[in-house]
Design goal:
Residues 204-225 are annotated as: Disordered. By secondary structure, the protein is mainly alpha-helical. The chain has one domain. It has helices spanning 2-19, 26-34, 38-47, 51-74, 85-101, 110-143, 146-153, 166-197; strands at 82-84, 221-223. The protein has a two-stranded antiparallel ribbon with strand order 1-2. Helix 4 packs antiparallel against helix 5 and helix 7 (146-153) crosses helix 8 (166-197). The N and C termini lie far apart (74 Å).
């Protein structure tokens, strides 16, 4: 539908630019919400791709698994092997690093933050598929509509010389509403998705732990070799 739909929506864009739309028409609110003309919306829909986002999500999950395996290597028992204030200070830092990396779905850890980002990428991929599907359905409906016939019968060259006729303006507005409405709904869903996921997508900084247990005047360290 890209070819015939693109041609029709470019006609719609030209009519709206040349003559606007009837006062109080729903298209004005949709134009404000979307911030683009119907032809631009179709072009955007043709460009969005879900597959790169799904690939990125899979890679992020693989990275999270790799970090989780590293976290397991940081969990060691030094009892009987290394004792003293040095061992205690090392254990504090080692434990803090292991907690920072994490091994599950806690978004307060590196592994959890990677998985949360993967979930967001996958949700965006679903959003792309849904937007393209909604736009395809909308275009399929408008290209065979009576309004499309009215626009095709209008002389495009005349738009540069005089305002479009009332029936042409009405037809363009009706088609624009049918295309812009699913786009407006989709963009609202994208903003809601971002707001919901944003707390788990922020940079997770590593904080150095506090000093380990204070040693005496002459701390002793024992290492079993």
């Amino acid at each position: 539908m890209a070819g015939v739909g693109g041609d029709l929506l470019r006609r719609v864009d030209r009519v709206l630019i040349a003559g606007g739309a009837p006062a109080g028409d729903p298209v004005w609110e949709l134009l404000r919400r979307v911030g683009a003309l119907p032809g631009d919306v179709l072009e955007f829909g043709l460009k969005v791709r879900a597959e790169p986002l799904r690939v990125a999500g899979a890679q992020l999950r693989a990275d999270a698994d790799r970090f989780a395996r590293r976290q397991g290597k940081l969990t060691v028992d030094l009892a009987g092997v290394w004792e003293g204030t040095g061992a205690e200070a090392f254990a504090v830092r080692w434990g803090a690093l292991a907690s920072y990396i994490g091994d599950g779905g806690d978004p307060g850890t590196i592994t959890g933050r990677l998985r949360a980002t993967a979930t967001y990428a996958e949700a965006l991929a679903d959003w792309c598929d849904a937007l393209r599907g909604e736009l395809a359905e909308a275009v399929a409906r408008v290209v065979s509509s009576a309004e499309a016939v009215t626009l095709r019968q209008a002389d495009p060259a005349a738009l540069r010389e005089e305002p479009p006729a009332a029936d042409v303006l009405e037809a363009a507005a009706r088609i624009a509403v049918r295309v812009l409405q699913p786009a407006a709904d989709a963009f609202a869903e994208a903003r809601e998705l971002m707001a919901r996921r944003a707390p788990d997508l922020e940079e997770l900084r590593y904080s150095e732990p506090g000093a380990g247990p204070a040693g005496g005047a002459a701390p002793t360290t024992r290492v079993a070799l």
